[in-house]
Write a structure and sequence with these properties.
- The chain is of the alpha+beta class and about 750 residues long.
- The strands form nine sheets. Strands 3-6-1-12-9-10-11 form a seven-stranded mixed beta sheet.
- It is globular, with a radius of gyration of 27 Å.
Length: about 750
């Protein structure tokens, strides 16, 4: 793209194109669509964690005027039989949970009935008086009871890589001059987006359904309900235009989707089912994980051996897996590494991916251990990381497609003032508060999935681009508009991007930080295909200056098609369409990862986080006063939305370090703090100065856009940097998150 273009949008910071709709309330979410003949469903949840349903007493509830039906395992119609019909694109190995399938209770708050009524208030009341008899059985919900009962997973979910093991780690550890071994614990967390899960099913007169569901993948939900209920894709359109936060909780179809479709098909009318905040704790979560890390160095501080073991929970019915320990074989140079990962089944719902799944857990343990190892070796924690910098991915034995982590170290240290940090803990004070500085880093996969898009330009010069991608607040609408506008040289105001609808070209679920790379590459490819059609039409114009030009010889800039080497030779894009007589021109295309590059290179984004904490020695309170997060993630498409992503990640990291934990009462097998009052997350008063910076990083191998994604990597290192800063401030090492006051007093 020419430097004199005012349609060169990629890399700039335009505001969100959907912003006005969101702040004015024009944006509709899944439980807000007004559809005709709407009934309301309310879920009844099991109070026990394991057992069976003996009897559901529905007669009294059904006698209430306005109550339409009580769905349960006792009256659900015959549905698909095989497990494969209930498996979605993100499902791990095992047998997926089937709502209302039988009398067995597998976890606390399992849905056991759906009460449907003419109004939401009536459905809620009727659900509250529905009586269910249970036979309770002994349950196990404590991972501590499974310390010696873990097993290596047999079949992981998509993206899971069994840990790599190199040479003899014990030999390296035996040769070490300095050595540590500690356990690190990270409790369960729930996603807790502001928007609760809900589905509105519009039942059309011809029996077809339009399903408005809270999801990070409309195609994933569509194939799930079509397989279960025997519908064609034409009979089950799924739509999600806006999402009030997902963070991974919407990757898999949740049970409100199944229940709302079931009710709509049986009652032959529109149905809405929304979950309560308490019911948001009844499904996927970041799993409770126990980790042990052992490492040793030579006299020069070089790592000689490293062992990393992780054990976390899964459900009885599915084998959920995460890449927890793999990062320890990748982020730092170590010739002898042993990585071990096990899972243990409990009477809980299957965990699900949560922002930076696996890495958020594993890198916390690794980065705190690195801090401990640095002190044991008598080295500055940042200098220790520099000495053990990995020039290649040792797990894959391949070079990185690009890696600017060393530059991130330099940038972050300079901006934070790291050179002024004394080594000794408890050596910095501000009034009655101890001050500490900590550092930690992170690495995340730079992935790309197959995606498709369609582009249409009309005679008035307006461009519409469409793909069934998701938008859960990351800025998808905006960055796709930027890519399309720049590719065809149009103002952003002339471009409309459509997403979140199964009538549009297929896109992967929005997760893994791959949406920008996957859908963005498809949008670019599709607009280029449309550009080739426009060039051919331009060449048919009388006295066209582009007569003999090839596509690579031209560029689309400021509403013109012009020769790259002779930019004064151009035609106006709108004239091309009007002269051609075409009302509109369409093109479609897809993009997928380059398999050769995937084999040849290891593709990842990296970051480093510097944190300052202030600890009241008498009260034990911790305030994170300053954070600097420097990210190396390839090409940054939008400086504003990218910064917002990382800001949100830092806030989440502060929450992970100091507040966020779902606490289980193992006597009942139920999470106790299943509400916003007791599940603590930061407020404005908890957040101080946060700086976000991006280092320039070109990556010609990762994908056509050179983008790596930042939704996950920005979280990594934050909790560990805060934990390390708390040690520097107090001299007390905390290895179990979150860092509550009683752990410091």
């Amino acid at each position: 793209m020419s430097t004199d273009s005012n349609t060169n949008f990629v890399g700039k910071a335009p505001s969100r194109v959907e912003g006005p709709k969101k702040v004015t309330g024009a944006a509709k979410y899944s439980a807000e669509f007004d559809v005709p003949d709407l009934a309301y469903g309310y879920v009844v949840s099991s109070p026990i964690a394991k057992g069976k349903i003996k009897k559901i007493h529905a007669d009294k509830v059904l006698s209430l005027p306005g109550v339409l039906h009580v769905f349960s395992h006792e009256n659900v119609p015959s549905l698909a039989w095989f497990d494969r019909n209930y498996k979605d694109d993100i499902a791990p190995g095992g047998s997926p949970f089937r709502p209302l399938h039988d009398d067995q209770i597998k976890f606390s708050m399992q849905p056991v009935a759906l009460v449907v009524a003419e109004t939401f208030e009536l459905a809620r009341y009727a659900a509250s008086v529905l009586t269910v008899d249970y036979e309770q059985q002994k349950h196990e919900t404590d991972i501590e009871s499974k310390r010696n009962d873990g097993s290596e997973p047999g079949r992981g979910k998509t993206g899971y890589m069994p840990p790599a093991r190199r040479e003899d780690a014990d030999k390296g550890l035996d040769q070490a001059e300095h050595r540590i071994r500690h356990e690190y614990i990270h409790g369960a967390q729930h996603h807790n987006p502001m928007e609760m899960f809900g589905a509105t099913v519009h039942y059309h007169p011809d029996g077809k359904l339009t399903v408005y569901d809270k999801t990070q993948g409309v195609y994933n939900c569509q194939q799930y309900i079509t397989k279960i209920f025997g519908l064609s894709k034409d009979e089950a359109r799924v739509v999600n235009l806006y999402m009030g936060g997902g963070f991974g909780s919407g990757l898999r179809p949740q049970y409100e989707l199944f229940l709302s479709v079931l009710a709509a098909l049986e009652l032959k009318r529109s149905v809405r089912v929304t979950l309560t905040r308490q019911q948001m704790f009844s499904f996927g979560h970041r799993p409770h994980t126990l980790q042990t890390l052992e490492m040793g160095t030579g006299p020069d501080g070089a790592l000689l051996g490293l062992k990393h073991y992780a054990l976390h929970e899964t459900s009885r019915f599915e084998e959920y897996t995460e890449n927890v320990v793999n990062w320890s074989g990748m982020l730092y140079q170590c010739p002898r590494t042993y990585l071990s990962y096990e899972v243990a089944p409990l009477d809980v719902y299957t965990p699900i991916d949560m922002r930076a799944p696996g890495a958020a857990t594993g890198s916390f343990a690794l980065e705190v251990a690195m801090d401990e190892m640095a002190y044991e070796a008598g080295l500055d924690p940042l200098e220790f990381r520099r000495r053990n910098y990995a020039e290649e991915d040792q797990n894959k034995k391949a070079p990185f497609s690009s890696k600017k982590l060393r530059e991130a170290y330099d940038e972050g240290a300079r901006r934070f003032g790291w050179d002024k940090r004394p080594m000794e803990p408890r050596s910095m004070r501000e009034g009655n508060k101890l001050v500490g500085w900590g550092v930690a880093g992170g690495v995340w996969d730079a992935s790309m999935q197959k995606a498709a898009a369609k582009a249409t330009i009309t005679a008035d010069g307006k461009l519409t681009v469409a793909s069934a991608a998701g938008e859960n607040g990351t800025g998808t609408y905006t960055i796709m508009t930027q890519i399309a506008a720049e590719t065809l040289g149009l103002p952003m105001e002339a471009v409309t991007f459509k997403l979140g609808d199964t009538t549009l070209p297929e896109a992967p679920v929005q997760g893994g930080s791959w949406t920008a790379a996957s859908v963005g590459s498809a949008v670019k490819s599709t607009c280029e295909a449309l550009g080739e059609k426009l060039l051919k039409l331009a060449q048919k114009m009388d006295d066209s200056p582009l007569q003999d030009a090839k596509f690579e010889d031209v560029e689309f800039v400021n509403g013109h098609i012009r020769l790259r080497k002779e930019p004064e030779q151009s035609v106006i894009l709108r004239d091309v369409l009007q002269v051609s007589g075409e009302r509109e021109i369409e093109a479609d295309s897809s993009a997928m990862p380059n398999p050769l590059n995937m084999q040849k290179y290891s593709m990842h984004s990296h970051n480093v986080v510097f944190a300052e904490v202030k600890v009241d020695e008498e009260l034990g309170t911790v305030h994170v006063s300053r954070v600097v997060n420097v990210v190396a993630a390839g090409r940054i498409l939008n400086q504003k939305t990218a910064r917002s992503q990382v800001l949100g990640s830092v806030v989440w990291g502060i929450s992970m370090a100091l507040m966020e934990e779902t606490v289980m009462d193992h006597r009942y097998g139920r999470y106790m703090n299943h509400n916003y009052a007791e599940y603590h997350v930061p407020t404005n008063a908890d957040i101080r100065d946060i700086e976000v910076h991006f280092v320039e990083e070109e990556d010609p191998h990762v994908n056509p856009l050179g983008v790596k994604g930042i939704g996950e990597v920005g979280l990594l290192g934050v909790a560990a940097a805060i934990t390390n800063a708390v040690y520097h401030a107090t001299g007390k090492r905390v290895r179990a998150l979150p860092i509550y006051i009683d752990k410091l007093l």
